[in-house]
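User: I'm writing a tutorial on reading structure tokens. Could you give me a worked example: one chain, its sequence, then its tokens, then a sentence or two explaining what the tokens reveal?
Assistant: Sure. Here is the example chain.
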Amino acid sequence: MGSFTVVGPTERIDGGRYPWGWEKLAFDDSGWPNAEVVSPAVPRGVRWLRSHWQLVPRMIPPLEKSLQEAPLVRLASGVEASRELLRSGEPLTVPPRTSVTLLLDQTYLTTAYPELVLSGGKGAQVRLTYAEALVDQKGIKGHRDRIEGKHIFGYADEFIADGGQTRLFTTLWFRTFRYLELAVETLDQPLTVESFRSLYVGYPFRERARFDGGDPLLGRIWQVGWRTARLCAGETYFDCPYYEQLNYVGDTRIQALISLYVSGDDRMMRKAISLFDDSRLPEGLTQSRYPTYMPQVIPPYSLFWIAMVYDYWKLRDDPEFAARFMPGVRGVIGWFERHLAGNGMLGELPYWNFVDWAAEYDSGVPPGADQGRSAVVNLQFVYALNLAEKLADQFGLPGESGHYRALADRITASVKRECWDGKRGLLAETPEKKQFSQHANVMAVLVDLVPAGESRQVMERVLNEPDLIQCTYYYRFYLVRALVKAGLADRYLDLLGPWQNMLDAGLTTFAEEPDPTRSDCHAWSASPLYEFLATVCGITPAAPGFRRIRIEPQPGRLDKIHCSFPHPAGDVTLDLERQATAGIRGRVTLPDGLEGEFVWRGRPVELHPGSQDINLP
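And here are its predicted structure tokens:
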């Protein structure tokens, strides 16, 4: 594939050697050898393990599976075929000694088991090739709907027909595709393609949240974003289903927040936090992705694992679960603390210090991250320290809490002393002050390196000064957190241009990074779903465990907001509209047992369970 690809092997099945009917009760398997014990089944926690593999209870429900409509035929070579051929249920017969190619279009990206039913055609070779998009001669995808001058490039499965009737060719693991190429080459017998369909598979998230701002663009972003999030969740979260079905911390933090806000289902988040805890190395860091056969360490991702633990503590009333990860939190912080240099900033750091896919960063690594004195990596450490301080304080660890606070203050002061450029009013990437980025200044606002009274001006510069290294889709999540903190959350809807560009390019899921992109489906780019609810509607926890709610809408250019949000106690609904130029009115409904506050332009209104009218001129 010419790219790092971790999705399991593709398959070549020889129908003449395949035990057809093996899945039926009447199949005679008396000639099969018995299964052999590889290792005894041992649950975690027993006295004598006797195995490297330990059994634990399943934390998530079985995956959802559902049949999908057959794809359209976009091109046919070697035979005449209508666009609706497979959907109509009409069989297609390929004559002897004939080569046929069909380009199929599911019309949207999906994760599914292909199910191809074939009859006859002994010795015929059938090949299914899968792709997110077609590419031109230079490998450029362009508009995803267009096929002229393009070809398919992707991994494939192969089947050799045995001549039997209604043979079902499928795969042991699902495939990811929008486009498929079905290539058939017959020998002396005709082959009949009886049908083709696919079985969608994914984690059974339910779309409980609703958002309507009266803008069709936002509705399209919501729809495509939710498909993106769903295709990136199976037995674990995936960063992308086509290339890397791997559970990465940086991606997963954003995915988990989307899951909680849109579906209210926290089981996958619990599993992800637990898996990363299991991945920890003896020196303290988590692995960047887990489970995996090939270990990889991204130290900044270990910091965002701490943020995941904090998110869960804030959003779910389950302190016992969050508290069990404090040894891991302690281990991560200890690793970074051991790498502090004499100037109070982090020195040389091993492993891959990825921050974002910004073009100016070397493989995602900002200046100074490897050699030492990177402002953004230091402030990501402070960001994690601030969250760990709150956790330690909540769990009765005042000594740890005080240590984290003092350490955060010391590093923040060092970064400001070394990297702040008073002339520009911005934080530089390193003490040499040769480069400036949105990333470093976003983190400066988030950790209070920038005084509260100046954060608004800094974020205005972040948005408007074109020479700054720009946040790509992933790090825009943190950019929006800084906008919220600086009191500029109402600017969020003006920043959706990149998402409109993806829709205009025909994407049916959101990509890893701007074109030319490798992956057309990357869950960190589905962050607008979280932002519509948490930023535009302003729904956030006002107490640990979401025991109180704060609703501070930031509708920006919208005149109306309608939304439903799956709080653990029940659905929260908003039905609001602007009143004159500066007011708001409408209704807020909270479930039983939930109280909180509604805030509009600094004016608070107490909220109680049930429905209440809002009228703030």
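What the tokens reveal: The radius of gyration is 27 Å. The longest strand covers residues 99-120.
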